[in-house]
Design goal:
Length: 321
């Protein structure tokens, strides 16, 4: 396993930093960004910050009307297009639209996701959390790769989670044919997110495309929609009225900060394929709950194997030059 580069570099920001802190002084005029889930939770905070910095932002959305209503007050240059990460046909259609309308793509945020869902099957019988969180974003990034390679130093920001520490990628049974566990399914999908960024960076760096995975921190957003209030109370996240009481929980703006730092920090200009948290490169760790990244999630050989599996599953074309 290889954890080279997975060392903190002295970022001026921290867990307490907000999206506004990170984006202050950054000029993104003339830059194009795509933000999946860019109309709710961390995605909405990301869209707001990018627009404030002058970027043009495209928000693919499963519910375009809801997205447009949520983004009505954001201002700036924001376009909503239809796309459902669970339906690769719509992902390819959205990518085709973007290839026709953009000459280059500078920033791709894979922000949308689902967590701890009841067992659901999508596409050809895929487990839904792996399908939405990984295969959907994998397909989108690969389909948009020509635009990313045409940009000047494009960056891909993949939202993972500390939940990747639950489990390595289950090559023996990635779709839980032998019994479903919603948290192991979530953990596997989040590990896949990290491995995806590792190999995308390896393939793309020759074209100036760098990729990063990250843990945004603990934040109560719409991500918890499939959990009951009682489950969240039992985990110590909220009280019986739904008020956030979990120690160390962040605001949505603080949760979006690490992704924006990944996308814009000059400290990361010659880096990539690393896992970030609290606006810093995380250290490799082996204990669940202490933060950092597991060695299995940044293993380049495992990342290459997952890439091959994902290409076979989705049928995307080659990436990188």
């Amino acid at each position: 396993m290889n954890s080279i580069g997975q060392q903190p570099l002295g970022s001026p920001f921290s867990a307490a930093s907000t999206a506004q802190d990170v984006i202050a002084g950054i000029d993104l005029s003339g830059r194009n960004a795509v933000v999946t889930g860019g109309y709710s939770g961390l995605g909405l905070e990301t869209t707001r910050a990018l627009v404030a910095a002058g970027a043009r932002v495209v928000v693919p959305a499963r519910r375009p009307d809801v997205a447009r209503a949520a983004l009505a007050g954001v201002g700036g240059d924001v376009e909503v297009i239809a796309m459902d990460l669970a339906d690769l046909g719509t992902v390819r259609a959205a990518a085709a639209h973007l290839r026709e309308t953009l000459t280059g793509l500078d920033l791709l945020f894979a922000t949308a996701g689902i967590m701890a869902t009841p067992e659901r099957r999508v596409g050809p019988g895929w487990e839904s959390q792996l399908a939405v969180n990984h295969f959907g974003h994998f397909t989108l990034a690969c389909e948009l790769y020509p635009l990313l390679a045409a940009g000047a130093g494009a960056r891909v920001v993949v939202y993972s989670s500390g939940g990747h520490g639950i489990t390595d990628f289950r090559r023996h049974d990635p779709h839980f044919r032998t019994g479903y566990d919603k948290w192991h399914a979530y953990g596997q999908a989040k590990t896949a997110n990290v491995l995806f960024a590792v190999h995308l960076d390896a393939l793309g760096r020759g074209d100036g495309v760098r990729a990063f995975a990250l843990h945004p921190g603990a934040i109560i957003t719409g991500l918890q929609r499939d959990m009951t209030l009682q489950e969240q109370v039992e985990r110590g996240w909220v009280d019986e009225h739904g008020n956030v009481i979990g120690e160390g929980f962040k605001t949505a703006s603080q949760g979006a900060a690490t992704g924006l730092w990944a996308a814009t920090s000059p400290l990361l200009a010659d880096r990539g394929g690393v896992y970030l948290e609290d606006c810093e490169i995380a250290s490799v760790t082996g204990t669940t709950g202490e933060g950092g990244v597991r060695a299995y999630a940044v293993d380049p050989d495992a990342a290459a194997r997952l890439w091959e599996l994902s290409v076979a599953a989705t049928g995307v074309g080659p990436v990188g030059g």
